[in-house]
Amino acid sequence: MGLMSVVRWVRAVSFAATCAVLATLGHLTGGGSLDRSAVLTGFLVIVVPALALTGRERTLASILPATAVSQVVLHVLLTKAQGAAPAPAAPAAPMGGAAGMEAMEHGTPGLGMLLMHAVSVLVTSAWLEWGEARLCALVRQLTGWVLRPLLFLLYLAAGSASTWPRPIVGARTGECAPVQAVLRYAVVRRGPPGTWCVPGAAA
After folding, report:
1. Measured at the alpha carbon of residue 78, what is the angle toward residues 75 and 80, in degrees to the nearest 5?
2. Please, what's the b/e burial string for 98-110 (b: 16 or more CB within 10 A of its CB; e: otherwise)?
3. pTM of the model
4. pLDDT tens-place string over residues 96-105
5. 177 Cβ contact list (under 8 Å, min separation 6)
């Protein structure tokens, strides 16, 4: 298994585990019971498509819908598992219309519960997107650190180290070309030629 496969598994497992924990907390907050087998089943159901979606770096635009869909799937699984579980001993019969009120309390979630789930999904998605960006940046940095020395070793093993790209070295400061060195001491004058000075000649 290569490095990128390990990274994909880490991302998929982290996403599925976070979604499973979030759905379980929401289920318990709503008054449901904890079914470990249902939580494990939901984790496995989420990790398979999550692994298929980790082919490239994901942003909030793709993480947010995936988190929302996973919460719906996990909520359905946990609710069905709770409904299939043996019911506890029936309590004493309530008085009057209390039975109808109790049924309404355990029915569909109210607006407050839906808002709490929506905020939880949004915060979790933002957190997952932050972790996704940091992990991918770390992998790219580590790949650059490891890949260049390995390529250099491969060049050495192939006997083509001379073809390894080297930085271009410019001229050093104060170093002149031969033509520039000669022209540096040339004096340019304009005007008629001066009188030649011959030794021993009269002034």
Report:
1. 105
2. eeeeeeeeeeeee
3. 0.58
4. 444 444 444 4
5. none
